[in-house]
Amino acid sequence: MLASEIQIPRKLTNELLHLAQISPDDEICGLIGGKNSQPTRCYPIKNVAAHPQQQFFLDAEQHIAAMKAMREQGEELFAIYHSHPKSPAIPSTADLDLAAYEDALYLIISLNTKGVLEMRGFKIHQKTAEEVVLTLSDEA
Predict the structure, then answer these.
(1) What single DSSP character describes residue 63?
(2) Which of 60, 100, 107, 121 could form an SS bridge with 81, CB 3.0 to 4.6 Å?
(3) What confidence tens digit (pLDDT) does each residue in 81-105 have?
């Protein structure tokens, strides 16, 4: 089970925020691999949702490839991330309904914040979200 506070490396945070910024109209999405319960690497995945401005759906082929790459790197699934271009960084009803990995952290990046990006983390269990405090670390 995840801790109530998670440290995210500054480099990884910057990468996630950059991905969201370069796609301001559509939700970005992907996976984060980890080792020893620490996030290590970002695996961007194409959003194949019918309405990517309002929801995300991971491309199945890229999802499988990312999971395989994690195994080859000795990583486990640490988090699933996506952005909300026009809404707050809190899970939507669809996010809660579609959350399939109870052991993963769900990271949501909001672009709806007047120039300052916001990223929040949640544990989702049985369609209920519990926020996890995110702190930046300078580790790689």
Answers:
(1) H
(2) 107
(3) 999 999 999 999 999 999 999 899 9
Q: Please give the Cα distance from 52 to 104 (Å, whole number).
A: 22
- Please compute the mean of the pLDDT values over residues 35-44 and round it to a whole number: 94
Q: What's this model's pTM, rounded to 2 decimal places?
A: 0.93
Domain count, the chain: 1
What's the CA gap between 81 and 69, in Å, rounded?
17
What's the rounded Cα separation, in Å, for the pair 26 and 52? 5
Q: What is the pLDDT of residue 114?
A: 67
- Which residue segment(s) compose the domain that 10 sits in? 5-137
Using the predicted structure, report yes or no on whether residue 2 has a pLDDT greater than 60: no
CATH of the domain at 119: 3.40.140.10
The total of other beta-carbon atoms located within 10 Å of residue 111's CB is 23
